[in-house]
Structure formats: C-alpha cells, structure tokens
Amino acid sequence: MMGADATDRGLRLEGVRIERAGGATLLALDLAVAPGEVVAVMGPSGAGKSTLLAAVMGTLAPPFALRGRVTLDGRDVTAAPPERRGIGILFQDDLLFPHLSVGENLAFGLSRRVRGRAARRAAVEAALAEAGLAGMAGRDPATLSGGERLRAALMRTLLAEPRALLLDEPFSSLDQDRRDRMRRLVFARATARGLPVLMVTHDPADAAAAGGPVVRLGAG
Amino acid sequence: MRARALPAPAGRGARLRLLPAVPLLTVAVLTVPVGAGLLGTALPAIGVMPALGHAAPGLGPFRDLFAWPGLADALRLSAVTGLAATALALAVTVAILASWSETRAFGAIRRALAPLLSVPHAAAAFGLAFLIAPSGWAMRALSPWATGMERPPDWLVVQDPWGLALIAGLVAKEVPFLLLMSIAALGQTDARRAATVARSLGHGREAGWLRAVFPRLYAQIRLPVYVVLAYSMTVVDVAAILGPTTPPPLSVQIVRWMNDPDLALRLRAAAGAVVQLALVAAALGLWRAGEAGVAALGRAWVRSGRRGPRGRGPAALSLALAGLAAGVVLAGLGVLALWSVAAFWAFPDAAPEALTLRSWARHGPELARLLATTGAIAGLAALAALVLAVGCLEAETRYGLSIRRGGLWILYAPLLVPQVAFLPGLQGAFLTAGTTPGLVAVTAAHLVFVFPYVFLSLGDPWRAWDARLATVARSLGAGTGGVLWRVRLPMLLGPALTAFAVGFAVSVGQYLPTLLVGGGRVATVTTEAVALAAGGDRRAIGVHALAQTGAALLPFALALALPRLVWRNRRGMQDA
Predict the structure, then answer these.
(1) A59, A76, A83 ranked by CB distance to B479: nearest
(2) Which residues of B touch A157 (CB under 8 A)?
(3) For residue range B60-97, what is the model confidence (pLDDT) as tens digits?
(4) Across all residues in chain B, what is the average pLDDT?
(5) Considering B166, B230, B328, B442, which has the largest number of Cβ atoms within 10 A of its Cβ?
(6) Is the model more confident about B199 or about B425?
(7) Which parts pass through the membrane (chain B) (predicted)?
(8) Do the chains contact at A142 and B490, CB–CB below 8 Å?
(9) Contact (Cβ atoms closer than 8 angstroms) between residue B450 and residue B499
C-alpha cells in the first residue's frame, strides 16, 4: 500500500473466483480497470454478472464465496465492508430512497468532508444543476420522471466521492432515446472524475457506447 | 496510507456482537416459560408440591381427578368443540378462498379482516351471547310480532350443554385468522397460475382451486390450523361466556380449581392440565390422520376426472357464510354498544326507552384504571416483541441466522401448547422463584404469546424489502446500523407499526396469563369483563367489552393513520 504507483491505480480483480457452497466455480476472472476506463462484462442470464458485482461490492451472500483479491488504487479491499470500499453502484432501477426528498437522497450520499449546513446544501444544489435537475431538491422522488430519477441517483452516487463505479444493467429501464443520453451523461461524469467503471450488461449497444474492453462470461 | 479507517472502534464492535445473540434470546423467551411451566404443572400432578407440604410423588391427584363425576363430559366438550370449531372454520375459510380469491370482491373481504381479527375473543363472545340469548337482541327483534312472546323463553341457547354457542363463537373469530394466514401463504404458492391452468382444463372455479391450489396452501397453513385446534379445545374466556357450566369444558374447570381457596385442589388442577395436554396431543394426532384421509379422497377425486359445478351457487353460499361470521361479530358489538348506553330496556322492545351515559359514568373511573394497566402491559409486551422481532430479522439479514422449519415449531410452541397446561406451572415457578406476581411477570408472560404474532406480521414485509437499497446505502457510506435506522426501518414504518398493533391487540385479549401469572392481583379490562360474565349485568358487560375492543382497535387505527401522516408528501411510501 505504501508503494502505490501509477500501475496500481484503478480497480483490479486478481485471481478472483466465485464459488458456490460445495466448491463448484461460478466464474474465475482477472481484470484491471484503469481510471477513466469503462470495462463491459457481458454474458447470458445466470452467467454470474450480478454476482460478480456483489463480490466487488462486498455484499456477496451465501451460498457464494469469493477467492482472490479485489484492489482499488492499490488498496486491498477484499475484506473491507461495503461502506469502506469507496465503490459506488448504479442499478437498473434508480433506488432513490422513497421516504427522503430528492435533496435528502443526495445529502445521504454527500461526503462527510463537506461540512456545514450551507455548504452541504450548496453542494447538493450544484450536483442537481449539473444533472439538469436544478431546483428539485425539495421534490418527492416519486414525482420525478424515470430519467430524472436515474440522473438524481447518478449524482447521489457521485457525491459520495467513490473511487470506482459499478453499473448493473443501468440503462435497460429507459427507452432508446433516453438511454443514449443517459449513457453519455454517466460515462462523461465518470471519465471526468477519472473513475474506473465496471459495467455488466446484456445490451451490446451499452458496450459499444462505452468504447472500452469487453469481457464475456461463459454461457450459464 | 488509505487503509487507515479499517479497525472498528471498540464500542461499535461490542454492539455488533449483541445482535447474533438476539435469536437465541428470543428462543429462550419462547421456550423457557413453556418448558418451566410444563414442568411446574407436571410435578404437582404427580403429587409433588412442597409449598403445600406434599413431597412424595404418587398418583393421588389423578385418582382424585378421575373420581370427579364431570370428567367425561368435560373431556367430551373440549374435544368436540375444538374439533368442530376448527373443521367449520377451516371449511368456511376454504370455501371463501375457492370461490373468491383472485376476484375483485376479495379486496373488500381482505380489508375487513384486520379489524375483525383484532376484536378480542371475549368481546366477540359477549356480543354473540347478547344476540342469540333467549332475551337477546335477535329474539327482541322478532318479538312479539313473529314469536308471540312477551317474556323471554326458557331456552338454553347460550351455554347449551352441547357447546353449540361456543362452537359458533369460535368459528366466527377463527375464520378471519385462518383467512389472513392463508392470504399470506397464497403469495408463496403461485396460486393464480395454478388456478388458471386448472380452469383452462375445464374445471369449475371451486373444483379447480380445491384440486390445484388447496393442497399446496394447506401445507403452508398447517401450523396455524393446529393453533386453532389447540386454542379452541382449551380456551377459557370464550368458554366461560358461551360454554356450558355444569360441567364446563375441562380448561374452565381447571381454572376454577386453580382459583379455589382450597389449595389442595391445585393438585387436581395440575392433573387436569396434564390430561388436557394429552387430550390436545391426541386431537392433533387425530387431525393429522384426518389430513391423510382427506388427501387420499382428494387424489381419488382428481383421478376421477370429474370437473365439478360451474355455476356461482357455491360462491354465493360461501359469501353468505363469511358474511354471517363477520356480521355476528359486528352486530354483537353493536348490541354491546347499545346496552352500554341503554336506560330502561324491557324485554320485547327492540331498542331501549332512552339512551344515557350513566353506565359509562358509573364505571368510568374504574375503567380508566383498568385501561391504564391494560395499555401498560400491552404496550410494553408489544414493544419488547417488536424489538426482538427486528433483532431476529436483522440477524437473519446480516448473518443468515434464519428461522427454518425447526425454528417455526419453536415460534408456534406457545400457541400450540395449551395455555391452561403450562400457565399454572409458570405461576408456581414464579412463586418458587420468590417473584411477587405483578405487572412485570404478567408482561413477560404476555410477551410469550405476543411475539409469534408480531414476528409473523413483520417477517413478510421485512423479507420482501428490496435488498439492493441496502447495497446502495452502503455504497454511499452507511454502515449496517445506518442502513437499518436510516433506510430500512423508516421505509418499513407502516409494517412495523402494524406488527406492534397486532401484538398490542393480542396482549389486550389475553385472559389466562393475566389471571394466573398475576395471581389475581393484576386486573385488566379483559379479566374484569370475563369476571362480569357470571353476574349478568348487561350494561356493565357492554361498557367493559366495548372498552376492551377499543383498546385493541385503537392501535390499529394509529398504525394505519400514522405512516400516512408522516409520509404524506412521499407518494412512493403510500402503498407501503
């Protein structure tokens, strides 16, 4: 960890193997995602795409078990709880917390390093404006359109200042037109922050738009 | 350098280690009282009761019990009322589900369940008695124009020697319970598609449902059905109100012996409790054998290929039966309310001469004290149960310490083992331990019966919660505690309050635990109302039974209203 240099930067999966109880291997993978790079993982349903993300996230549950190492910017996070990994995640659904306002959702993610009520509110407002949601902090998430909610979810994730981003079929709930715009927004924001992005999808257009390497998991 | 934050502060680690112990603690809360109570009942039954100077074991108490001339009748009443009430309640439940599940009308039936279920057994029993007694409201409504009667007839309608009124009262209260348990179970049985397939193969609605869905449903509601059987055989408060008196069902007689000033009768009561337990076990065995018989008949019916009736006749019948069950409870409450504000009310009149608040004013001060005690016990028991239930479910979420098949039997143990079989022993155990009977002991005893319902009520919504929300919250920096307190519990506010209300209502309705564990020193609206049964002061009974119902229903109303108020600006929380 002391020797973190340029080659350690980004998200790395070293000798990662996900096993079912009993020892059968679901998938085995070596992978390096450089900062600002989007790696797409593709494969049929049941190939273990979402399980792979759970392993990287640290939420892998029985009957699955993880072997190998997950490192982020040179730090081994394999044993760290999800909240100490510095990894953000976006799902197909926005998963905004329905009991909080849009602004409170963003503040939930906003890093503790932003101190003071006024500063925190300003940071939330700025993030909303960046996603074209200016003035929506007080709104009930349920009153936003699907695209607006996904953008709010993206900004909530980014406000937590993650050092890597996971995407789990993030655009499949949108129609074709919104999907393109959302893709551009997500990839642009992630690249601007130099985040390594690991995306699982079964839409080849997602992988093509990402413009990065594509990893195919075996047929399940 | 960036690995700085990993070692957890000590306090946090200590708190985390508590949680895995909660399921174990809960198992102890459920099983220790039942086990200690059974032991405390078994010892006096074989003549060991040092407090009374009996130390040598022997069969004296059983000889004494078998010499009691009412025993055969008491046993028959317990078995017949229990089996008949359970069979009828299950039949009505199945008839409603077969005809009406997956229809639009079912939504209305479903919404009527929770309030019906929370009406305490004793209040429902009083209501039924006030309806069907010879001088009850039904007879008044028909007299004298239809019956020609100017004086109430000398018929033994309530407390009839066959226990028919008792069976009717039990069926009316158990149908909503079995329906609610069935609806929860249907969600896990793929019922809709199975029923559709059956109908596409030419089976009528009811016949198709019975053959395609019912077997799977029954496997899921078997334990609740056993609970109904064990409860119906051994219930004390309902039997004291609606059941025959000379002799009463065995459970009522056991409580009479327990409360007799002659302490020697405690030994006979203990022997009776052991016999009651054996009778319930035998009835459960008989029921289990009956299940196999019905299954064999059902298979033959399926093989025969008969398609069953197509019309809506069975549907109309089942709705009428369900309406009767619900109507009896609601009309009974109405008559109770009328009596509580009745001035002079002569026999054949359908309504009192005038309405007055005199009865409420007379019982008001005492009622306030009773309600305070009732509310304190119920509030504490339901709160403790909710905390334990959340702890168990959170432990399940975090560590996979889930309640499986064996755990389910532990959960149901306090409901399957008759109260009258282990509460007398628990009373003895408390006395031996030197604990003064009082609010704490009674609340602890209530918790045993409250917890299973709270846990069952909260479990389904808890597990149905989208776990990806937890993943998102943790990726945003929230720890497991943050997920619980800031996301999961606020989102589950409605189900948590409902579970609390269920527990509160269960506690309000408890009669025997309050009476026996309280040693007669703790009085609630329920113990007072049941004590009034013998006296026959209808105005006092009306006031107390209504107060009891109100105490059980009010938390339900709050549980419905509060989340709507708190989350009024959150549309995504409205259907939660």
Answers:
(1) A83
(2) 475-476
(3) 899 999 999 999 999 999 999 999 999 999 999 999 89
(4) 87
(5) B166
(6) B425
(7) 79-100, 112-133, 162-186, 223-243, 263-287, 316-347, 367-395, 407-426, 438-458, 492-512, 545-567
(8) no
(9) no
Q: Would you say B170 and B81 are in contact if contact means Cβ atoms under 8 Å apart?
A: yes
Q: ipTM of this model? A: 0.90
Q: How far apart are alpha carbons B88 and B83 in whole angstroms? A: 8
Question: If 0-12 CB within 10 Å is exposed, 13-18 middle and 19+ buried, where does residue B378 land?
Answer: buried
What's the confidence (pLDDT) of residue A23?
81
CA dist A91 and B153 (Å) reads 73
Task: Please count the residue pairs, one from chain A and one from chain B, whose beta carbons lie less than 8 angstroms apart.
Answer: 90
Q: Measured between CB atoms, does B2 come within 8 Å of chain A?
A: yes
Which residue of chain A comes nearest to B2, CA vs CA?
A75
> Which pTM was predicted?
0.89
Residue type at B296 in one-letter notation: A
Q: Inform me whether the pLDDT recorded for B1 exceeds 60.
A: no
For residue A1, give the chain B residue with the closest CA: B1
Of B486, B487, B570, the CB nearest to A140: B570
A114 near B CB under 8 A: no
Question: Which of A5, A51, A83 is the best residue to mutate to test the B interface, defined by the most B CB atoms within 10 Å of its own CB?
Answer: A83
| Distance (Å) of CA B229 to CA A13, A59, B222, B247 | 58, 44, 11, 21
The correct CATH number of B82-245+311-340 out of 1.10.3720.10, 2.60.120.200, 3.20.20.70, 3.40.50.2300 is: 1.10.3720.10
Domain ranges in chain B are 82-245+311-340
- State the Cα–Cα distance between residues B366 and B356, nearest whole angstrom: 18
In this predicted model, what pLDDT tens digit does every residue of A16-32 receive, in sequence order? 999 988 888 888 999 99
For residues B110-148, one letter each, b for 16 or more C-beta atoms within 10 angstroms of the residue's C-beta and e for the rest, the string is: eebbbbbbbbbbbbbbbbbbbbbbbbbbebbeebeeeee
Interchain contact B433–A (C-beta under 8 A):
no
Candidates A94, A99, A139: best to mutate against B (most CBs of B within 10 A) is: A99
